[in-house]
Amino acid sequence: YSTRYDWFKDEDGNDVGIIILIEDITQRQKLENMQMDFVANVSHELKTPLTTIKSYTETLLDGGVDDPEIRSEFLEIIDNEADRMNRLVKDLLQLSRLDNNQEILNRKEGNLISLLKAAVKKIELTAKNKDQHLNCLFNPEERIPVDMDKDRIEQVILNVISNAIKYTPEGGRIDIDALKRDKTAVITVTDNGIGIPESEKSRIFERFFRVDKARSRAMGGTGLGLAISKQIVEGHQGTIQLESREGRGTKVMITLPLSLKKGIRNIE
Ligand code: ADP
């Protein structure tokens, strides 16, 4: 709590009363702490690749590496770390645009099934490289009309599927489904991967939160994917939820409102 007070005085300047203002600053304090945590996280996440880049560059500049194979290995590491920084800055800029409502969602009616099919095609190879199969359970002929910014919703779906691939061991199974329920479209991505411990589940949509930082980094993750996905889905008046059992698997459920225009056309 923060307290402030002021005296009431009469005409002669004598104290005749006091006004005390007690303000609950829990919320404000919380926000300030979150902002400080965020800045600390950003700095740390940028510093890690920078340190690697710096030390490998210095070693190369010292001229101590004669073996051309080791030299190109070093250059590859530097290149990878620069890519990581790029991804991080890109994600941060997008989050900041979403926070400030500057990321204009260009929503148009589109068929969610077509979008899912295109997304699956894009990421199929990544799954195949891990000997995983993406099972499309939705009816490819169905039309699920949603008013959406196609690029952004594709980004969300690719993020969720790529998480399923990343956090599921080789040979795993990933089911992708979509259906209409009442006035919403429901998309589910289910994997039989490593899952998320119950105690961590509530924090999974927080910025930079990762169950296993080292593992996520090794997979090229920034820890911002789900936070961004949540903002995008909520910008579409939708919801994103996650169910998970450690060691068993994870199910991500996204809902988006069905396009009303379709209904109007049906009446016509
Ligand atoms: P990252 O870039 O680390 O993947 P995300 O924001 O996409 O960041 O996800 C945050 C964290 O949530 C991940 O680091 C991981 O610990 C956990 N997670 C997300 N999806 C899954 C999943 N399908 N299975 C297990 N853990 C997951």
Automatic annotation (TrEMBL):
It comes from Aminipila luticellarii. It comes from the Bacteria. This is histidine kinase. Residues 41-260 form the Histidine kinase domain. It is found in: Membrane.
